[in-house]
Amino acid sequence: MKFVDSARIHVKAGNGGNGCVSFRREKYVPKGGPDGGDGGRGGHVYLRANAQLSTLLDFRYKKHYEADRGVHGQGSKKAGRTGKDVVINVPCGTLVRDVASGSLLFDLTEDGQEVLLAEGGHGGRGNPHFTTSTRQAPRYAEPGGKGQELEVEFELKLMADVGLVGFPNAGKSTLISVLSSARPKIADYPFTTLVPNLGIVRYGEYKSFVMADIPGIIEGAAEGRGLGLQFLRHIERTKVLAVLVACDTEDPLAEYKLLLDELKRFNPELLDKPRIAVLTKMDVIPEEFTPMMLGDGTPLFEISSVTGQGLDGLRDALWTRIVASRT
């Protein structure tokens, strides 16, 4: 399934039905009073967060959503039927912005969360509502109100406990495939991962957490180079960051610092998140390798996703920080 994390749609709530102008006419009541019914309310447009969805792909094919209008009122004080509402399902983690103003309308983060996006027009009142002491037979009824209409932009930010951050070919995809049931494409060349991958990592018998494999960052990503801004935003919602550096890179410490610099340039608050450093591919450690000294107090784990070296300790450390972030 193609991963799409932004989309723009047009929504229109239903117009309200018109009120009715009618007068009671019966065999022995030739000049009865007004009996026009009220029009029905127009249908609303709702948004609902759905944990079963993971992409905004559907909105690439359907861009217009319109609720039904309310039915007009009828004689004998028969009210018109309310227009049918429209419910639009979006993935958890979807931001909703008004295109016209650029303002943030909603942030849908919880499964089942539902918000009113566009309100249907009110139903017009029938002519009985306009009788007065001097006007007993009004020939006027209220028209239905217009339904709200707007264009909105969706932006999806993945909901994950742990975000794997690293340059291309740092071993992120291999790690998530070993720790979880996710099966991302893995190969020994840069940019194998072109879309974020989510995996459920089991911890103990009954615990688990969600890990996100973010496509590889490159220098200048904060300014949009490479995959750049397209995927950096997915890191913002993660509770814990795992910064991965391959041990066989030319200068692991310089690469680690460069990654932190890219995160800081994109959003300085990312460096306030709990994080750990992970030195990967320890099964192919080069002869000239020297231990990496971070100097910033960040815990460092040396692992091999191939042999399993250090994975239990890494899993424990991630879980500890996830639990701490929830309190």
From TrEMBL:
Q: State its cofactor.
A: Mg(2+)
Can you name a GO cellular component term?
cytoplasm
Instruction: Provide the Obg domain boundaries.
Output: 1-159
Matching entries from HAMAP family are given as: GTPase_Obg
Describe the protein's quaternary organization and the partners it interacts with. Monomer.
Protein family membership: Belongs to the TRAFAC class OBG-HflX-like GTPase superfamily. OBG GTPase family.
What name does UniProt use for this protein? GTPase Obg
Species assigned in the record: Prosthecochloris vibrioformis (Chlorobium vibrioforme)
